[in-house]
Write a structure and sequence with these properties.
With 462 residues, the protein is α/β, with parallel strands linked by helices. Among the domains are: 6-66; 84-218, Rossmann fold (3-Layer(aba) Sandwich), CATH 3.40.50.150. Helix content is 28%, strand content 22%. The strands form 3 sheets. A 10-stranded mixed β-sheet has the order 3-2-1-4-7-9-8-11-12-10. Strand 18 (436-442) and strand 19 (447-453) form a beta hairpin. Helix 2 (15-29) crosses helix 4. The longest helix has 17 residues, at 48-64. The structure holds S-adenosylmethionine. Residues 83-85, 115-121, 139-142, 145, 166-168, 181-183, 198-199 line the site of S-adenosylmethionine.
Amino acid sequence: MAELDVETARWLVSTAGLAAVAAATTQLDDGADELKVATDLSRRTSHPERRSAALGAAVARRRARQRWPLAEELLFTRAALEQASDPALSAHRAARLVATLGRSPAAAATIVDLCAGVGGDALALAQAAAGTGAPVCAVDDDPARLVLLAHNAEVAGVTVTPHHADALTFPLAPGAVVHADPSRRRDGRRVRRLADHLPSVPALLAAHLRTGAWALALSPGVALDDPDLPADLEDLEVEYVQLGDALVEATVWLGANDGGRPATAAAGATADATGAATGAAAAAPPAQPAGPGSHRRTRATLLQDGEVVASRLGSPATRTRLPVDEVGSVLIEPVPAAVRARVHDDLGRELGAWRVSAHRALLTCDVSPPPSPWYRARPVEAVLPARPKELRRWLGQRQAAGTERPEVELVLHGVDADPAELWRRLGRPRRGPHGLRLEFVRRERDIVTVVTRTCGMVGPDG
Ligand SMILES: C[S@@+](CC[C@H](N)C(=O)[O-])C[C@H]1O[C@@H](n2cnc3c(N)ncnc32)[C@H](O)[C@@H]1O
């Protein structure tokens, strides 16, 4: 059942509804609990569904404040806010999609947001398209959400035309530029398979594949070899996007690149805004089998404070695996977007690094690498067997030699162990983030403990 019916949505955007949401927000800000706010709302309206909608919008508004500059005027339902893209992500996607307009054969092609919700992405698309003459239409099968979307567009001062329709059958003009953010929840439960999204991703692509450029927002858990992504499209790119430290999305792009395959590692396929991590390539390792999905074009993008700080392309040529060898004097942990986009071997190649294990995206080398947003590098203090007794002895010796008891963090790389039990067996050393890390790494034949130091670390927060 829809969270909000269309009549209630119409009331919510009316003067009376907006006043009720504002009053409820102020009360919550002042510390009133939801029950008290709901009771007080009954003085404004006798309709229980209106009271519930106003309270929901007030709760959502308070949550939206950290991310939406216009939150005090925007309207969300609780679920619609949860489903809305982060504004920084929306702006990034919108800018990239709108940039394809110049390449569209249809003059002033329409931009269509196929699962628009209350408009998080549609507003960003309209803002990015301002001045291009391209109209933006927003399609959703929930008419109540579209009522809120129309209000939100007015607040943001943009023009978006809402269409109440099924995204699978909505008629798209030839050359239309398409954005879609299908729901990753069905009957209140998170779904993984693309065919279980609402609407189904393979059905959506099958219905509209022949249009112009596409941006399809999916979970970052989507694998390159997902069988529900078209296998044979040359121009399909999967972009893994990180916001700060958090991997937040995989965006599937179609027709969004300006032609040609991405440059290979040898040609320097990196667009690092810091200019870092572009050192001389190490001797090429022997080529390894690349694995499923490896024909796909990928991109890793790092966003910080709404800006792209680094973006890097991946292709079959950049995906040849580095050789595995013993742990060197530095441990290098590529950021999640680099790993998901499988550009970490290529990064390592530029640093003269090698892998610690064939199955872990953990690299190592003997020279401290330059600062870069693409990885964290930590000096290695020792490489020890993963036996608590020996680790305890080593920590004791270390403490005896130094003036202070080192603070210790535990990190498990592919090791299935109970951290609480491990902690107990290590004699409960002092816990803390600014000292030593005991990094348990699963290798092909054993587990090893790499002791690293967090001060002297190279990386975004080193
Ligand atoms: C993840 S939300 C979109 C959020 C939106 N991008 C935002 O940032 O605010 C997915 C939306 O898809 C809509 N939806 C689900 N199935 C649909 C269908 N078959 N046709 C049109 N819209 C659909 C839902 O109503 C929901 O609003």
